């Protein structure tokens, strides 16, 4: 045990005594995420505010007085710059380029058609690629429905058979939780791997490249303890890097999602569960990275060997974006990395399944133990550890 602690201290000292490495590994990821996400949130809010502040330009033809009254009513009070339609082709090109926002054409015989029982055809155009045009379209389509009901009422009297009352009940925590469940699992797994990749190759393949691993192995020390000391220290360092990134995400999400800064839908239980998932997942990741690094001759080769595993883990993390709910099959929670992504999804949506959480926990610990055992065997194999 003393040897393991000594190796751990050596590895931790190597990182924490290097100010640049501390900055890049622990502070920089969380800070960059916070700055980037906060900037994105501010930009989106400013863009939305700009769209709301700019008055849309609408080209109209033969607009009925009754319909215009609905648009001007205090209940809607839709502000727009109305222009007469002259050349439909040129105006459509202006709409396509985003210079105007909406075109609506009523037939010249609109009122007469209504009186005669005919159905006049109202044509409107909008640009679905422009946010302001979409907003204008929603206002006009809703107003047309109101105007149609008003005309029916004027012509036939009260035709309602029943009245309906609508109330929308929304749980804000569920909405925010669903968004976080789609974003955070992928980001967390990515940051865990990034932390492991920045530390693992340097710790093992780096010592092989510098020749210091041979000096360490010829000492009267149990090589298994050396391997375990490196795994434990790397797990601590990678976890700290992931926690830094996680804190950056949590602090920046309110700004990104446009909610108040004091909105906090998660409690102590959720944070503890996330922490447990981080720890057991980083043990697996460090085990994978350490074993692959031990096979490499130098840091560059180790990075190349680890890269495919990193890309696969990113793809697995992306599965959380395909759905806001976790998979139901228990057996899938025995698959490493994937099970962590699914449990994180459950945590963020407040739907943690105890059995599936235990399956994730046990399977990851078993795999991490197997990887640790394999690494200790590698440290006993001089052909693997002393090859340059």
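^ structure tokens above, recovered residues below v
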């Amino acid at each position: 045990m003393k040897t393991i602690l000594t190796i751990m201290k050596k590895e931790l000292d190597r990182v924490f005594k290097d100010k640049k490495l501390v900055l890049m590994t622990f502070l920089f990821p969380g800070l960059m995420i916070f700055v980037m996400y906060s900037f994105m949130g501010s930009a989106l809010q400013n863009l939305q505010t700009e769209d709301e502040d700019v008055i849309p330009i609408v080209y109209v033809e033969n607009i009925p007085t009754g319909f215009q009254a609905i648009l001007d009513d205090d209940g809607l009070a839709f502000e727009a710059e109305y222009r007469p339609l002259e050349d439909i082709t040129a105006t459509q090109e202006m709409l396509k380029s985003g210079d105007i926002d909406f075109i609506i054409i009523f037939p010249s015989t609109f009122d007469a058609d209504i009186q005669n029982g005919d159905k006049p055809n109202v044509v409107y155009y909008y640009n679905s690629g422009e946010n302001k045009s979409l907003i204008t379209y929603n206002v006009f389509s809703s107003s047309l429905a109101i105007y149609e009901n008003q005309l029916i009422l004027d012509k036939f009297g009260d035709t309602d058979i029943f009245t309906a009352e609508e109330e929308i009940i929304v749980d804000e925590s569920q909405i925010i939780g669903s968004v976080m469940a789609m974003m955070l699992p992928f980001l967390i797994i990515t940051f865990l791997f990034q932390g492991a990749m920045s530390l693992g190759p340097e710790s093992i393949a780096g010592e092989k490249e510098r020749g210091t691993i041979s000096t360490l192995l010829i000492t009267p020390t149990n090589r298994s303890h050396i391997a375990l000391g490196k795994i434990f220290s790397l797990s601590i360092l990678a976890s700290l890097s992931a926690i830094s990134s996680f804190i950056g995400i949590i602090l920046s999400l309110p700004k990104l999602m446009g909610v108040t800064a004091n909105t906090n839908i998660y409690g102590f239980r959720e944070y503890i569960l996330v922490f447990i998932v981080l720890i057991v997942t980083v043990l697996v990741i460090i085990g994978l990275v350490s074993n692959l690094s031990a096979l490499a001759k130098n840091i560059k080769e180790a990075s190349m060997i680890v890269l495919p595993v990193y890309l696969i883990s990113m793809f697995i993390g992306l599965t959380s974006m395909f759905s806001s709910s976790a998979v139901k099959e228990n057996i899938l929670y025995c698959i490493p990395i994937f099970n962590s992504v699914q449990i994180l999804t459950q945590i963020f949506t407040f739907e943690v399944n105890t059995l599936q959480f235990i399956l994730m926990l046990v399977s990851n610990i078993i795999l991490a133990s197997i990887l640790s055992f394999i690494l200790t065997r590698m440290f006993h194999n001089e052909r693997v550890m002393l090859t340059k």
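The mean pLDDT is 81.
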